[in-house]
Amino acid sequence: MAQGTGSINSDYKDWEWSADAGERARLLQSPSVETVPKSGESQGNSLGATSALGAVFIVVNAALGAGLLNFPAAFNTAGGVAAGIALQMCMLIFIIGGLVILAYCSQASNERTYQEVVWAVCGKVPGVLCEVAIAVYTFGTCIAFLIIIGDQQDKIIAALVTEPEGAGSSHWYTDRKFTISITAFLLILPLSIPKEIGFQKYASSLSVIGTWYVTAVIIIKYIWPDKELAPVEIPTSPSTWMAIFNAMPTICFGFQCHVSSVPVFNSMKQPEVKTWGAVVTAAMVIALFVYTGTGVCGFLTFGAGVDQDVLLSYPSNDIPVALARAFIILCVLTSYPILHFCGRAVLEGLWLRYTGVTVEEDVVRERRRRLLQTISWFLLTLLLALFIPDIGKVISVIGGLAACFIFVFPGLCLIQAKLSEIQETKAISWWAQVSYGVFMVTLGAFIFGQTTANAIFVDLTA
Fold first, then answer.
1. What is this structure's pTM?
2. CA Rg, the chain, in Å?
3. What percent of the chain has pLDDT over 70?
4. What is the b/e burial string over 177-202, where b = at least 16 CB atoms within 10 angstroms of the residue's CB?
């Protein structure tokens, strides 16, 4: 990769543009986004090649994912269809607002990735916190992916060995811990060790096909239900006023596409904030319909008895659902290495900055370090996935971090961007934007604190 000539953040001399910095920028992009040069790095070719319509589908693809499986349970937690939809609609306003703020700050700071924008606009401490949050978030999502693999394999194996539901298995090779481990060692680990991630485009296609197929199956199964499927109870209101906040982690986890949104914005033919506002509004409306369709139909099919992973609520021998499980497994198998690359790249960047060594000076040790990081990351996520079999508990933790990416960091960026403007008299619009930023930071901090505390004291200690 060609080296750039300028620094990513001119305020910090220790963070120069290098081949390694470019690698980190590429790793945190959406799988469908090509790397494009920053303004001023290339003459006559500074604009991207992505149309507005293409950007809509890239953002939709970035938003939709494994969190889809948890939405019916989130509707149950929120207290029914009305509460679940109302909560989504309220949060969607701030989700779209955060995406627009990031584009505005990216344009103002001339940075191309999420963490670089936070570094340039907010400074060193928020920048480091942002990178640490990305690393923790990707680590937690990798755990969730392994749990999903185990959940789907349990059902597929139960159908193949034709054992009664809930009877358990006496065969060691059908044990959940064995199947997750063998799948992870044979398929995920080899894909996670290499430095390059050229297979991203294939993972993107699998994600799109798998997500839409799962949604279609859940909706069709609600319209034409199997005779043996009957909901026990359908809640119409939340059990307590705090219960509705417990659904927020799932919604944040599902709609979080902000980390990959900055490269998407910069890949557009015309990266303008107004155009981007239309793009993300259209993308989030599409995502809203998919998540709402899955959440409502899955919830109404099983009621209060819906599992945290909705596919677990269906019988093992249901062929269309079994195909959906296979799609999800394929999607997760290719998505885990990509998320691992993102987390590993951030950790590598933090290490290089801490030691003050450039990647060019540390090629041999970089290979050893990458192998150590990959194996440590892989083994830790695998061990935690084996002993935390409930995906809802993992999402309750990482959903709080997703709230930071959606609310806290964009809010801080907006506040800092407006405070840096030199104006003798502050207009009403200036005060309104600063107030909006303060409100976003406050809301995000509340969601993060509440969901994290609930996860620690209720879910993880249960």
1. 0.82
2. 22
3. 81
4. eebbbebbeebbbebbeeeebeebee
User: Could you give phi then psi for residue 425, rounded to 5 degrees?
Assistant: -120, 135
Give the integer Cα–Cα distance in Å for 133 and 393: 18
Of 405, 404, 413, 403, nearest in space to 434 by CA: 413
**383 with 150: CB under 8 angstroms?**
no
The rounded distance, in Å, linking the Cα atoms of 129 and 106 is 18
Q: Enter the tokens of residue 114.
A: 């999420």
Segment among 5-19, 230-244, 263-277, 393-407 with least mean pLDDT: 5-19
> Which candidate, 38, 31, 33, places its Cα nearest to that of 55?
33
List C-alpha distances in Å: 10 to 5, 78, 87, 359, 360: 12, 46, 41, 19, 21
The helix or strand, by DSSP H or E, that contains position 66, with its residue range, turns out to be none
pLDDT beyond 70 at 423: no
Strand partners, 16: 7
Q: Give the other-Cβ count within 10 Å of 348's Cβ.
A: 20
Strand partners, 7: 16
Residue at token pair 């933090």: 350
Alpha-carbon distance of 459 to 398, in angstroms, equals 13
CB 250 within 8 A of CB 400: no
Residue matched to tokens 């799962």: 214
Residue 366's pLDDT is what?
Answer: 76
Mean pLDDT of 199-226: 80
The answer to whether the CB of 372 falls within 8 A of the CB of 347 is: no
Give long-range contacts, CB 8 A cutoff, 24+ apart: 89-94.
89/288, 91/248, 91/251, 91/252, 91/255, 92/255, 92/284, 92/288, 94/406, 94/407, 94/440, 94/443
Q: Which pLDDT belongs to residue 334?
A: 81
DSSP code string of 272-312: -HHHHHHHHHHHHHHHHHHHHHHHHHHHHHHGGG--SSGGG
| CA 298/CA 84 separation, integer angstroms | 13
C-alpha span between 68 and 251 (Å, rounded): 9
